[in-house]
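The aim of this short unit is practical: by the end, you should be able to scan a pair of folded records and say something sensible about each. We start with the first protein, listed as its amino acid sequence and then its structure tokens.
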Amino acid sequence: MEKVIRIGVLTPSSNTALEPLTNAIVSSLPNVHAHFARFRVTSIALSDQALGQFDDSNILAAAEMLADAKPDVITWSGTSAGWMGFEKDMLLCERITARTGIPASTAVLALNELIALKNITRLGIVSPYTEDVQQKIVRQYAKAGIEVVGEVHHDISVNYDFALVEPATIEQDLLTVSQSKPEAIVTYCTNLRAAQLADDFERQHSVVLLDTVSTTVWGALRKVGVDPSQIKGWGKLFDWA
């Protein structure tokens, strides 16, 4: 009997998109199961209160509960490192592993690994965030030598409301950003219903879509030695190794 691989996924409490999308993505891998733990996140902003939601103590408490299910990897399916600093996710992974003994990954670290694998230097970003949060993300990538050549954001700060952005609206956003000729476009929020758009969009417009729910899965599978290319129908990123 083939060993069951368990992926533990850390989830913002008000996120309604990432769990069904994650389960749908891994459904073609019968030996891979996803399990979720939530911690409180209700708004995305640059205020002290909003940033405090991502204090490592909150995330580590959720990781410890996930560890009770004995997952093979624990991954943070959230994009807060985009505006708080990539090093925050690096440190978080170290702390999760130190606390639980389980390897760790994140949506943003996996995204950045994919960008590096393909030497992408021209990026497009679609997000639901406010202007100031979006510009923080843009500046982070600029510091890493990656130009954000096109972006769309929706000026929403309530985390629950991100999932209310219709996929048809996201498709239009992707088309708008594609006009600036990026090498890849990121749907930069794990509470956007966007991952399922990748195959059709890539086929029609020849631009890779790096959705952050998908990058979370890709990074987690790599951590446990499962070949992501077994996943079909969710975009080209799963063929990248």
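Turning to the second protein, read its sequence before its tokens, just as you did above.
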Amino acid sequence: MTDSPILIRTDNGVGWLTLNRPERRNAFDDRMIADLVRGLAALRGDGSVRAVVLRANGSSFSAGADLEWMKRMSLFGRKENLADARELATLMGVLAEMPKPTVALVQGAALGGGAGLVACCDIAIAADKAVFGFPEARLGLIPAVIAPFVVQAIGPRAARRYFLTGERMDAVEALWLGLIHRVVPRARLEDALRDVLADLTACGPAAQAAVKDLVAAVSGRPPREALDDCARRIAEVRSSAEGREGVTAFLERRPPAWRTGNGRIPAVPPRR
């Protein structure tokens, strides 16, 4: 078992990014944040990677920020704290803006910044015993850096409640609020992940990157204001090499070129 705070591997088109501080409930400090940013950049630049899975070793997904690290930072001035906060903001932004599909596989507690990581991913699958929460206010702090992503996921009214109370929610409530997309028994997490990865790798990678950019572009805009931009986007995609290949493959009743191995997904590698 390596002492690296994250583990990275690629396998048949999937990039696996594993939080690896189980003894600290996968709480992140400056080293883990920097390693996550580098790991995401490496997977983004790897042309063989079609989707990225964020998961964790141990019983917790992530307890958020490491309290010992936060205590050390509290002894520094505003300038140092601002630089440190911007590093965490960079991590959340890099994850949220990844052009490849991202999946959070949540086996246990995801709290504070850990829940923020979940909100940044495109798809989140959780075990039925997983819990979520934003306990920052109970420490006299605020969930500032993760707020844009959490509010986007669950809405401002729900965010006010959970940010103000610091209470925890179970997986069913997190599903209902939109923080996660699917809840399954812990023993079925990997089966659910395989299903999602099979669906993701059935789609064109360039189209998926364009979809993520499309959603960001239309979010919060009145439909009429966005229509001309949307028409331009579909015209460009239809005339692209991937768009032509997809339509031609469908009409010829064959798999498109991106369906390497007919979309088969390898067995989920063990966490340890």
